[in-house]
DNA sequence: GATGAATGAGATTTCATTCAT
DNA sequence: AATGAATGAAATCTCATTCAT
């Protein structure tokens, strides 16, 4: 299954949103791009207006402040990002029973790496905001936690029962898996997209070794 | 084992810098607090002056621009830190020969976790800036890479020769070790300092398992 | 005595104006409310539209500018009111011959107090505008002066002839009568509608005393 | 005794205020003039800056908003205006015992008329604000009420005891006196300064007649 | 006629930086 | 060295008015 880009999902969700006029959608699209490119604070409303091809006043007609633009972008995205991650696990859980630990790890990690590769610009916006906005962190954490409980952790239990996975606490196992993805994310964030294929096998070697039952 | 060498990087670097008057140090301390709390752009120079207990003009006596304050804060990270990291490994490498892989991992990882815990504010500011400023990363990466080559990688070679470590490429091994620290860092960044002792043994279990020779 | 002739000036003038659609009347009503509450400049057209339950564009269908709304609100004051005042005196002069000075004063003053009570919002808007716009005053003063000459002053003459009124110049007498009403007006403007009945007798005591012939 | 202009009193109080820099004083002086000339809402900060001979940013250094400028002007003035009125009565009460009612009325009314004549521009600013700001009304009313109790009403009592004044409630008597001044004020507000000498005797005739004991 | 999104001119406000004291 | 008022360029924001539907 192919991951959709968050930006594409965002564009789609904008298209379906009859609440917003075409110009207002253009404003949000342009804002997201500029925020991802330069960061929120370095982007000013005249840039947004220009990129969206509207007058500066138009920006403020629908969105009372610049912060409200950001909120209008992030609010639907938090849902979408978490959902994108969740849906995926859900599908795997019900459709496939992983034959080996490596199969499982591959499915999860490879998928995340692609996701990171394709969405790092949006992720940047999230991280830059989350660094100074606990509330955003709370929201993300909350949704994420719930998603993990209902998806990944169920699969982990199954793998442990089948003695394909070391018997450590779920959060711990998740943390180690996440560690490899996060390292990958950092490289992507700071150096641009990386070659997943070149990374994945070695990463799986490590995780498989570290997470196999004794 | 001497793990205390890397402690509060920023405070130390201030103390050692005899160049700076007390007021100038106060300015940097206040700036770091504010930058870490609100971000660089949302912090204005009058806030800095007020928190430091100096006049706004005084800020500009030593630091020609607001960016220069930022640079002065991040300087230890790009300068001394890499040196501190290097020194550390250097000492361990020459003074002690690690008896077990776990000893080695513990020395490196525990140390880094403490470092993260004690310097997360500088790191936070650095990351928030680096997200939209590749140049910052370049400098750090360059020095870091060099330091790794000349220090950690030599130790890895030694461990491999003694068959205490899996025979994978050095950068790969480093990456997995880094992964665990980075995950720890994320938690610290978004949720404040964490309990190293509570984490370290489980992390070592995982790394030891994943990095032992076949 | 028929004192009810001058009642709610603005409402009446709206009702009589068949030129205006229901929506247009709603616009004027809402505007008056808002102007009286917040002032003209602090009221924006979107508030008016919202309060009137119409679209912002609709406001501009009938009224070419925001100032034109104001003019439409103040129109009755400069047009009909003066007429109403005139008519009033006219009737009294020809229909009734006041038996006592007090009767005359009561008719005039009580009537004006009710008028003030019921139309203080329009008056408030008028005054707030007139304070920094002499032109507004000119128009009203002109018409008022003429109306006085042709009505009140004739009655005064009659009363003087019958030795019911002190023999002072008409404008002077008018000014003293007006003074009591203006004081009443001030209280209404700043503290909302007042109780006419509670005031009138004492006011008449004073005026009667001050304006009786020697 | 000569009334001092409020603007002069204001200028003096500014001079004594070491809190404010010269430019900041200039800003307040210019603001008051412009507000008196054009009204608050029609005055923009660039006009203020220009008239004060400062940069627009300077306006906002001390005063966070335009409203704060207005507040900075009105706050000290409310005190001064009321004090100007109060002090006056105080002096008369202790120094002079009025020989006749007319003497008393003359002292009070003539004084007020001159005050109105000289300060109508500032009064305009007060009224225009008070119309839409109950709080300002409250403050003024409160201080005024207190001042009346402690000054005018004492003199009224004395006059009544000496049977020089009709035995009506104090507020009522004040209201009638005020009525004549307010009427005068209205003419001044809307038509500019009036000739006090030409008015005063006739006004006194009326008041004396209306307020003499039976 | 009615709508409400769009406009753009202009107002308010911010703030890094300078500079006279 | 230290101060803090002053600056002005640029940002955010407001709103009367227009206009396509």
TrEMBL record, chains A, B, C, D:
<keyword id="KW-0238">DNA-binding</keyword>
<dbReference type="InterPro" id="IPR009057">
    <property type="entry name" value="Homeodomain-like_sf"/>
</dbReference>
<protein>
    <submittedName>
        <fullName>Transcription regulator</fullName>
    </submittedName>
</protein>
<feature type="DNA-binding region" description="H-T-H motif">
    <location>
        <begin position="44"/>
        <end position="63"/>
    </location>
</feature>
<dbReference type="GO" id="GO:0006355">
    <property type="term" value="P:regulation of DNA-templated transcription"/>
</dbReference>
<dbReference type="GO" id="GO:0003677">
    <property type="term" value="F:DNA binding"/>
</dbReference>
<feature type="domain" description="HTH tetR-type">
    <location>
        <begin position="21"/>
        <end position="81"/>
    </location>
</feature>
<dbReference type="InterPro" id="IPR036271">
    <property type="entry name" value="Tet_transcr_reg_TetR-rel_C_sf"/>
</dbReference>
<dbReference type="InterPro" id="IPR001647">
    <property type="entry name" value="HTH_TetR"/>
</dbReference>
<dbReference type="Pfam" id="PF00440">
    <property type="entry name" value="TetR_N"/>
</dbReference>
<dbReference type="InterPro" id="IPR050109">
    <property type="entry name" value="HTH-type_TetR-like_transc_reg"/>
</dbReference>
